[in-house]
């Protein structure tokens, strides 16, 4: 019987029977792995041959993530960005064409505009809301369509099945960054993806103490990913893997709290006179809500708000003295975060039409009442500057 999702989160990748009954997979600190015979070394007939290519510790997490995402094979990388770059390099070479979503994570965009372009890959950015219209941008040399739904900072929803259909009809692969929803709330392979990327640093770890990425792929695409991953010498530390395995077991209960607090905060912000718009696809007023409702089973705690025009000093007064919201370049941990963002001059396919400055919020696991009180005090400082 196939286990339900919450059961899978707890059991995937665990094999106590081969570890003397130990519930958690032991941490293998290794480099050299010995072969019993010359024949075994020649044929590489044992499951582990060199620690860079895997150990029982790494295999446990790879198996668990693949099971949650619904893919055939997962490989681990030292960061989420390393997962992005490795996946793109696996399918692109000089002369190829990449269709990259215009709302992509900033460092991913930087990789495209520097490393890929100087190695002869043609990068074209497309409107995140284009849907099946992506077919008009396909070329004979298009090898990858890259999606991120919802988009970083601006949170546009993408029609993933429509993108997958157009990509496959044009002979390309669909790669998606699935970090926002995690494998809990969006199943990329059920919607046509060939490769799914996770910044494991975020929700899978959940405790703001690990840098890691993961690439999960179909059986066919996984062979190409594995070859590039190996050629680049990608590996991760066993102690970090242990922390992710431990954090992942509580993914369901953590993410439900992140989602509830995030939606509550989004609704609260929507009623504030200082706020022009809330960018959160789980809100019925959001332009991408119907796509979110069709394809996703939940939301994470990350969203943005657009303020009405205001001076920088007002934003600084609000943010500098918050008690429970920290300012830092990450999300997905237990703590709440808030950071100012600027899309002007970044988007190329779809200019950012914004009423005012953007604040990106991550709803942590603190009490909602404390978070709202903290924000109310922040807005009081904000309004004291505006006058």
Reading the helices and strands in chain order gives HHHEHEHEEHEHEEHHHEHEHEEEH
Full CATH superfamily name of the largest domain:
Type I PLP-dependent aspartate aminotransferase-like (Major domain)
Summed over residues and divided by their number, the pLDDT gives a mean of: 96
Give the number of domains. 2
Count the helices. How many?
13
What CATH calls the topology of the largest domain is: Aspartate Aminotransferase, domain 2
Q: Give the strand line-up of the largest sheet.
A: 1-7-6-5-4-2-3
CATH class of the largest domain: Alpha Beta
Family: Belongs to the trans-sulfuration enzymes family.
Keywords: Lyase, Pyridoxal phosphate
Cofactor: pyridoxal 5'-phosphate
Pfam family, one: Cys_Met_Meta_PP
Q: Would you kindly provide a brief summary of this structure?
A:
With 387 residues, the protein is an alpha/beta fold.
Defining traits:
Aspartate Aminotransferase, domain 1; alpha/beta; Aspartate Aminotransferase, domain 2; 12 strands; 37% helix; 2 domains; 387 residues; 7-stranded mixed β-sheet; 5-stranded mixed β-sheet; 13 helices
Any overview of this molecule?
The protein is α/β, with parallel strands linked by helices. The chain folds into 2 domains: about 5-250, Type I PLP-dependent aspartate aminotransferase-like (Major domain) (Aspartate Aminotransferase, domain 2, 3-Layer(aba) Sandwich), CATH 3.40.640.10; about 250-385, Aspartate Aminotransferase, domain 1 (Alpha-Beta Complex). The protein is about 35% helix and about 15% strand. The protein has helices spanning about 5-10, 40-45, 55-70, 80-90, 105-120, 160-170, 180-185, 220-230, 240-250, 250-270, 290-295, 310-320, 370-385; strands at about 75, 95-100, 120-125, 140-150, 175, 195-200, 215, 275-280, 300-305, 325, 335-340, 360. The strands form 2 sheets. A 7-stranded mixed β-sheet has the order 1-7-6-5-4-2-3, sandwiched between helices. A 5-stranded mixed β-sheet has the order 8-9-12-11-10. The longest helix has 20 residues, at about 250-270. It is globular, with a radius of gyration of 22 Å. The termini are far apart. The relative contact order is 0.12. The mean pLDDT is about 95. This is Cystathionine beta-lyase.
């Amino acid at each position: 019987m196939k286990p339900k999702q919450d059961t899978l989160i707890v059991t995937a990748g665990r094999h106590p029977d081969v570890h003397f009954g130990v519930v958690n997979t032991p941490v293998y600190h290794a480099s050299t792995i010995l072969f019993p015979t010359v024949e075994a070394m020649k044929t590489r007939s044992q499951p582990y041959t060199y620690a860079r290519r895997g150990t029982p510790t790494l295999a446990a997490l790879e198996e668990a993530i693949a099971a949650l995402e619904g893919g055939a094979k997962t490989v681990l990388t030292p960061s989420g960005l390393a997962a992005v770059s490795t996946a793109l390099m696996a399918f692109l070479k000089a002369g190829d064409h990449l269709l990259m979503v215009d709302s992509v994570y900033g460092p991913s965009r930087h990789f495209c505009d520097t490393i890929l372009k100087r190695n002869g890959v043609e990068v074209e950015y497309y409107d995140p809301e284009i849907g099946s219209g992506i077919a008009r941008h396909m070329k004979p040399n298009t090898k990858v369509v890259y999606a991120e739904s919802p988009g970083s900072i601006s949170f546009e929803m993408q029609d993933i099945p429509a993108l997958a259909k157009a990509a496959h009809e044009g002979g390309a692969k669909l790669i998606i960054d699935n970090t926002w929803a995690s494998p809990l709330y969006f199943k990329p392979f059920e919607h046509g993806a060939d490769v799914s990327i996770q910044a494991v640093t975020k929700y899978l770890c959940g405790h703001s103490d690990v840098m890691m990425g993961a690439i999960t792929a179909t059986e066919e695409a996984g062979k190409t990913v594995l070859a590039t991953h190996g050629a680049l010498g990608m590996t991760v530390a066993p102690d970090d893997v242990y922390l992710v395995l431990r954090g992942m077991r509580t993914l369901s209960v953590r993410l439900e709290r992140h989602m509830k607090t995030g939606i509550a905060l989004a609704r609260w912000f929507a009623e504030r006179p200082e706020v022009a718009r809330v960018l959160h696809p789980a809100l019925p007023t959001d332009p991408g809500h119907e796509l979110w409702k069709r394809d996703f089973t939940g939301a994470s705690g990350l969203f943005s708000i657009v303020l009405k025009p205001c001076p920088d000093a007002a934003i600084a007064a609000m943010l500098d003295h918050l008690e429970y919201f920290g300012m830092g370049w990450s999300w997905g941990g237990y703590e709440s975060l808030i950071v100012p963002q600027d899309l002007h001059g970044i988007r190329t396919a779809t200019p950012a039409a914004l009423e005012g400055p953007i604040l990106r919020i991550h709803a942590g696991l603190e009490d909602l009442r404390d978070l709202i009180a903290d924000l109310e005090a922040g807005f009081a400082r904000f309004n004291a500057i505006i006058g």
